[in-house]
Amino acid sequence: MSGANSLIDKNLTRARRVIKWTAIGVIALATTWFIIAFLSGSVGLLAKGIDSLSDLIATVTVFLGLWLAQRAPSKKYPYGYFKAETMAALIVAVFIFITGLGVLWQAVQRILFPTELSFIGFALVITLASIPIIFVMARYLKKVGRETGSTAVYNKGQEFQIDILASIAVIFGLIFAFFGLPWIESIVGFIIGLFILRSSFQLAHESVLILMDAGQDPEQIKAIEQLALPILGVLGVHAIKLRRAGPICFGEMHLEVAGKTTVLQSHLLAEEISTRVKEAYPDVLSFLVHVEPVLPTTFRVAFPVDNPEATPDSNPNMHFGSTPFFIAMDIDRRKIALWEVMPNPSAKDSKQRGKNTAHLLIDAKVEIVFAEKMGETPLSILRNHLIHVYKQNSQANCRKNIEAFLEDELPPLKAKEITETSIRP
């Protein structure tokens, strides 16, 4: 299957095969229940027959959903058709609900207008014999559902498990009918109907949560976080999200790396994390990692200033290449630790002034530069050396600008803020 790994394809094929054989078993059970209900007049067995008929319709629906889930992604459905399997599970829940209403109706009718039962002994034997068959089917379907990640297959197993309780209730009802109390058997049928309704609500709730991309298990989120944190170069992870689509999962994560990490290094880190997650959880088809650079606890910034005795409380100069001085400040744990004022030898150059000024800051090991405006050439040079450039507030002093920057209130200097006159180097 294009766009999915072989394990997921294998799981879907296995789930379809199990559902096909389940359909055959359901046909046999439904036929048996209806025949015995017709012979005996038991409302409990009639309820079982109606339930099995809805099982058959639901099983066919699950089979079609699994078949559709195996189709390759397309332009219209780039994430594949996996949620078709979950939609099938939801349809199963609707069929179960309708079945429950039908069973309740039949039970109420028999309670109001009771009838004598026939062939009670034969009905008891057949009902007893069906329990181990249903038990094996329920256990196997739930096992396959867990192993393949198929909600629809697991729901079918859950439904068969409830059928066991219903069969036991039918047996008690038949025993009471044997002793001349047929109305109790009708009450048993009514109770079975209530159980069927409860089951439909539970299964619908689980399917709707998946279709609405509800949050996954917090323990799994924590485990994925622990997979990523020990990797060298990872400073932190957050915003881990998983959403299920039928038998598979799509995931994403925000990865924090040092500000000077190269694009290639970031890509390799993201690939390693994605690989680890998919190896640990084979049902995760795609795991996207969004890389976020973070500032170290200590870094060096620079502002253009007018005089050689400038301090952090001085206002910055509005010019970049022609500024006579720069004040460079070392920030340690969000506080100004040291500062120095550097002359700009290129301030009065007639050519390549901005370019030379940019190289001055590169040589001074500055990591962040603040400016009102800047030519295209120096801006490109600084960014190519992984130096971040932010738009300063020239009406506030340098200290206030740093505080605003640390609160993420200053925007990066953008190309649209470069004027025609400032493009000259």
Description of the structure:
The protein is an alpha/beta fold and 425 residues long. It folds into three domains: 6-211, Cation efflux protein transmembrane domain (Alpha-lytic protease prodomain-like); 218-294, 2-Layer Sandwich (Alpha-Beta Plaits); 298-417, Nucleotidyltransferase, domain 5. The chain contains eleven helices and eight strands. It has helices at 6-40, 43-69, 83-112, 120-148, 151-178, 182-211, 218-228, 263-280, 353-363, 376-384, 398-406, and strands at 236-245, 248-258, 284-294, 298-305, 325-332, 335-343, 368-371, 388-391. The strands form two sheets. It has a five-stranded mixed beta sheet, sandwiched between helices. Helix 2 (43-69) packs parallel to helix 6 (182-211), helix 5 (151-178) packs antiparallel against helix 6 (182-211) and helix 9 packs parallel to helix 10. The two termini are 56 Å apart. 38% of the residues are buried.
Spell out the blueprint of helices and strands:
Elements: H1 6-40, H2 43-69, H3 83-112, H4 120-148, H5 151-178, H6 182-211, H7 218-228, E1 236-245, E2 248-258, H8 263-280, E3 284-294, E4 298-305, E5 325-332, E6 335-343, H9 353-363, E7 368-371, H10 376-384, E8 388-391, H11 398-406
Parallel strand pairs: 2-3, 4-7, 7-8
Antiparallel strand pairs: 1-2, 4-5, 5-6
